[in-house]
Amino acid sequence: MMAGAGANPACKIMTFTPTMEEFKDFNQYLVYMESQGAHRAGLAKVIPPKGWKPRRNYDNIDDFVIQAPIQQMVAGQSGLFTQYNIQKKPLTVQEFRRLANSDMYCTPRYLNYEDLERKYWKNLTFVSPIYGADVSGTLYDEDIEEWNIGHLNSILDVIEEDCGVSIQGVNTPYLYFGMWKTSFSWHTEDMDLYSINYLHFGEPKSWYAIPPEHGKRLERLAIGFFPNSFKSCEAFLRHKMTLISPSVLKKYSIPFDKITQEAGEFMITFPYGYHAGFNHGFNCAESTNFASIRWIDYGKVATQCTCSKDMVKISMDPFVRRFQPDRYQAWTQGKDSCPLDHTLATPSTTPELQSWLQRRRRKAPATTSSLTDYAHDSLPYTMWSESGCQQEKFPDSPNSSSCTQTWTNLEPIPMQCSGADIAANAPPDLKQQNVELEPSKAYVLGQQAGSQEPQEEEFKGQEYYECAKSEHDGSVSDSDSCESGDKGADSSSESSEENAMSDPEYVETGLEPGEVSVHPILYSSELPWRHPLRKPTARAVPSAVKQQAASDDEECATEEEEPETEEWAKPLVHLWQHRKAHLQYEREYNTMAAKTTPHCAVCTLFMPYCQPDNLEERRHDVSTSAATESQGSCSQEASFRSRPLIPEICFAYQEGPCPLNTLLEEDGSSPLVSCNSCCVQVHASCYGVAAHDVGPVWTCDRCVSGDLAAGCCLCNLRGGALKRTSDDRWAHVMCAVGLPEVKFIDVVKRAPIDISAIPVQRYKLKCIYCRNRIKKLSGACIQCSCGRCPTSFHVTCAHAAGVPMEPDDWPYVVFITCHRHQSRSSSAVELEVGQTVISKHKNLRYYSSRVTQVTAHTFYEVMFDDGSFSNDTFPEDIVSRDCAQLGPPEVGEAVQVKWPDGLFYGAKYLGSNTSYMYQVEFEDGSQVLAKREDIYTLDEDLPKKVKGRLSTASSMRFQDAFFTTQGERKRRRTPNSRFQTDYIANISPRTFTRISETRSKAN
């Protein structure tokens, strides 16, 4: 049927009211809906015939248990938000209803739906609501046949027929108990499937939808606003954590439509239809996924999240073989290239579909699972057959951080507490981690901890199912343990004492200047979910950087003639602005920079130069090369073109839509141009060079003006790429990108630079790198992005000293990490037998110890029946098999796992991995087996938590672990009084969640 191709050209959400006769055949009515063009909007509403009800009444569900409700915490501003999920204790429906209707969580008064929508987006970040999401079960009565979400009889049933597998929430129903402000972020369905949602009772649900033919535009917009998330995972929208308001969509001309679903109405989402929405108050919805013939082509090209092992992936082999037999051979050879046409409707029938339906009719109908079948089970079902289907997981990407849903298993807390009570435990941004405060609270395991709604909510336990026989990658991760102590008796977990500090108390306290609150993250031979919050910097940081502990009271009495001792500052000796301007020194520095990756004086902000140790050698090299060139020209990088490191959104911060940059090719590269006067080399797109000016002979703005003594008004260094400011001074383009309040008035030309919004306090900050080198300080400083760290520095000084800076998600643009806050994992070295280290004793305090043995330990990887994972399960914890005698189970074999809470859980064995374990011996003769991240060498900075628990044994054998005297060791650190008036930039919600996450891991 091709009628749908020309219907509904405006792509508006359509509403259908079928008669009882039409309502009886779900799949045929879907064909009719698409023939009318409903699929072009990506979303459609269906109002059932009068008198039809899926359940006689809902009076007997009050005692139904919502095993894993989650609290939705939202961070962001200006219409761009990121949503995090924190798991709460189980609730009955009656308790959840009471909570939803309480003064804290109830729906505010409103005039109409438009007024309520405004209140939603205005108050999205306040009072985090609780969502009873992903509850396996159905509220349909067993005798209901029409539009029964439990058995829609769509071709998606091929999964269960051919593989004997039921994927919870995908081809089985899920229930969702919502309250005011609970949301589902922008996403398409897993494998771009259809979905159906029925609102059983309660308050309405608002939906937003973007037509499938405009889905790519939303993806490009999201990539621009969240470049760091895209860098970690190209399919980051599948994480279902990104909220973008309608006002932002309008601003960037993204077509969308909205509709409100009332109780007793169905909503259908179509393949590749992005949708989002929120609940108006207490309600209950039921949903699942389904498919049609048209979906098969979508499933073959659906994008996959590559940073997580628990995303749903369905092998398309049985679908193509059964419903597209004429294309099967070409498809298996990778030659079946069929571009998607979002306007085409699904055919009413095909010979293959008819044949499949006839075979199904000859088979006995399957018994429908009802609410009482599995909704009250402690572990939701995952059904398997003896067929060749295997459950597979994506391997961890060694270059990416985890982008799965963030689940923080908190201690049960009273539901009447405010959302602020757990604010400090907010998970980090799009690079998430699974953390747990106390392993003894692992009772949530097997209680829907990893699930998410198929068509709207963001919490489905996502699993990769492969219906064709294939090898397992053997890489799985643990969703409920963060330390080696979680599984072993000797390597003990944190005591309740460590969890005693309240979250609000920590928020008030913040970090002390120069202190680090970082807990080591679990690593194995294959990286698990819990990757570091950010990847280690690509360049090594110079070890000779001046320490931030230098006193502010120190008099800046450094003479100009004093020789420079720190390596990072040697190339800058003649570039400080307090010295006389000399173009030759700038030319030498710029020439050297042009030969260093990324060959651009602007986007090198995100990749500090690797400077040679000896400036004279470099000067000699540069002079030698320059001697062979004409006096007025500079050499240009041989490639002439490369890809800029700075996303376009960094230049268009809080301005209008990013204008099209004609200097950026489709592959993202831009030509390199070099000034024939000062030799500064830049990407044409980074500097805003007009297209007609790109060529072998080009002059920068500063040299065109003839102001050869110009210096940046935002820092104390010369050299680099300068642009005019709005007050007729000069500033580095790099400084303008790094300072959050600075804007480019003309985004395309990258000029003039507007510095009027920089607060006075920022000019008063003192750079830790140049304050002792220059008598008269000037410029505006940036600060470390980690919590309330007051460490400040100029952009160029920090860049020269090797401070790592990287693109961040809008609106924060740049994330800066001072040397004190860099992850110790980036510089961790392997330990040797006999080495003196500091590690945690059984009494939970840290003592000096020696490494006595290094062993490679084998861990088993299992997937629990609720969809959660563990990749550090000890073989002896498999109680259903004597692994010591018989070896590991067969891949896919059902096993019983003993968890630290003493309970046994069903799981599937998926493989094994090897991790190095270190046996350390304390002075009392006791020994502990620990992982590398739980051990600190004498050269490593100790986190604040470890320092607070560092003890000395009464009879010390390892005196070399403690360098200071007893008096010095007990001396309390007094804060510097001059820090009290220093300006501290407002902490961003994303940074706050990063540090809060670090705190939750450390405790």
TrEMBL record:
Q: Where is the JmjC domain?
A: 141-307
What processes does the entry annotate via GO biological process terms?
regulation of gene expression
User: Transmembrane ranges?
Assistant: none
EC numbers:
1.14.11.66
Q: Which cofactor does it need?
A: Fe(2+)
| Family of this protein | Belongs to the JHDM3 histone demethylase family.
Record's protein name:
[histone H3]-trimethyl-L-lysine(9) demethylase
Q: Which organism is it from?
A: Cyprinus carpio carpio
